[in-house]
Structure formats: structure tokens, C-alpha cells
Amino acid sequence: MRAALAGALALAVALPGCAAGPEPAAPGGAVRGPLTVLAAASLTEAFTRLGREFEATHPGVTVTLSFAGSSALAAQINQGAPADVFAAASPATMRPVTAAGDADGEPVVFARNQLVIAVPKGNPGGVTGLADLTRAGTRVALCAAQVPCGAAARAALDAAGVPLTPVTLERDVRGALSKVRLGEVDAALVYRTDATAAPAEVHAVEFPESAGAVNDYPIVALRRAGNPTAAREFVGFVRAERGRAALTAAGFQPPRA
Q: Which residue segments constitute the domains of the chain, with CATH numbers given?
């Protein structure tokens, strides 16, 4: 599998859909050729694993994965970027794709994700909640408002009544997390899954307001897909047992029933 980490790819918005999906109808079978999947940055670990597993069960397919902020990816799709499948980190970022008629059918929600406060390992600042992020001298990174993790962070901060001014706004959640890992900030609001992916470097602080800003993740095959059969098969694969296992292992929550 070729993983293309596409920082230049742009935004996408997700629409709610069915919670559970069927097993792929014909693993392997006649599915052949290249398959390009554009996915939210927070799906990096889970989809990298699923891409390899899809290739293993569909030996005629070569999967290319591109990860970036959902809004950037959606913009690229609307501008004609070649892709077969789009997985976004929110209904809002999937919406431009469906509104432009670039989706092949209705997106379906396959996972949910919740925010945590990422701090350096050991939590040297003693952060226990959002209010601690406003202490004098505390440097905080957030995602930009148009990115799903940024919209969720702003919703949580508003719900808590915390007037936080970040020192940096990142274009995707991995950018915000990297600021903590590099010691450039004291904390960042990121998805639980992203903190889970870096246990040796960051500590995740749970906070109650995040429960009111949980993101639904939708996925859809694209209307201009070069490999529509493989695209539909991959969507089914993500929603089936192997997909659920990989997403749960990465820290994602199941979609609403």
C-alpha cells in the first residue's frame, strides 16, 4: 500500500448516516486495480491498517491513502482531484462534496471521536480541565475553526465558558498534536485517537465538556471514482467487522445505533 500524506489536500464535511454496515459481499473476487482514499488526518493509523488489510483480502487492488484536514480534502474533490473514497471527520466537512453532487450515494457514519487535552508526558503543568489552559504563560494549540477538530474545540470551550486564545491555529489535528510533541506549546485540544497514537510522548486529559462536541465520521464512494467497484467494496470493508476492530483499537467510538 502506498501512503501519500497529502498536506496540500483540502476540506470535507460529513452527513449522518447508518450506524452499522454489512460485511463486504465478495472479498477478493473481481475487485482489481488502484484505489485512492482521501481521509481525515485523525484516521491515519486506523486507515493505514485497513488499507493493508484490504489489499491482503483483495490481492488485485493497490490502495493509496492521502491524509489531511477534512475541509482541504473536500475542496480538492470539488476541484476534480482524482479519488475513489472520501472519509471525513465531520458532517460539516462532507457537505460541500454532497452538495456539489460529487458523492456516489449518501455518506454513512462509521465512527465517532471525542476531544481530549494533550499535554506533555507526565503532565508537568498539572492540567486537569479547560480552565487550566487560561493560566498565565500557558501556550495552547487549537485546530483552525474550519477544521472539524477546531469546530469541536470551540464548541467545548464555549460550553465551558472558557475564553481561550490559542498561540497557534493548525490546519489539521496532527499539526496541533505535533506542537505538543515538539515542546512548542504546553497543551492542545486533539482527538482522543491522536493522543492514543502517541502514548510515549503525550498524556491525554479527559474533560467533561468534550461529551457535547463529539464528531461523527462519514464515508462515501465518489461519483467520479476511477474504480467504483473497489470504492464501494472499501466502504463496506470499513463498516464491517475488520473496520470496526481497527477503529476501536485506534480509540474511535462506534456510530450511534
A: 2-112+215-249 (3.40.190.10), 115-212 (3.40.190.10)
The predicted-structure confidence for 84-102, as pLDDT tens digits, reads as follows: 999 999 999 999 999 999 9
Report the predicted TM-score, pTM, of the whole model to 2 decimal places: 0.83
Per-residue confidence (pLDDT) for residue 197, from 0 to 100: 84
Residue 65 vs residues 25, 73, 207: alpha-carbon distances, Å: 23, 12, 32
- Looking up cell 489535528 gives 173
Consecutive H or E run containing 119: strand 115-120
What is the share, in percent, of the chain residues with pLDDT greater than 70?
A: 89
User: Which of 24, 22, 86 has its CA nearest to residue 58?
Assistant: 24
DSSP 8-class letter at 228: H
Q: Which residue in this structure is represented by grid cell 488502484? A: 34
- At position 239, the amino acid (one-letter code) is R
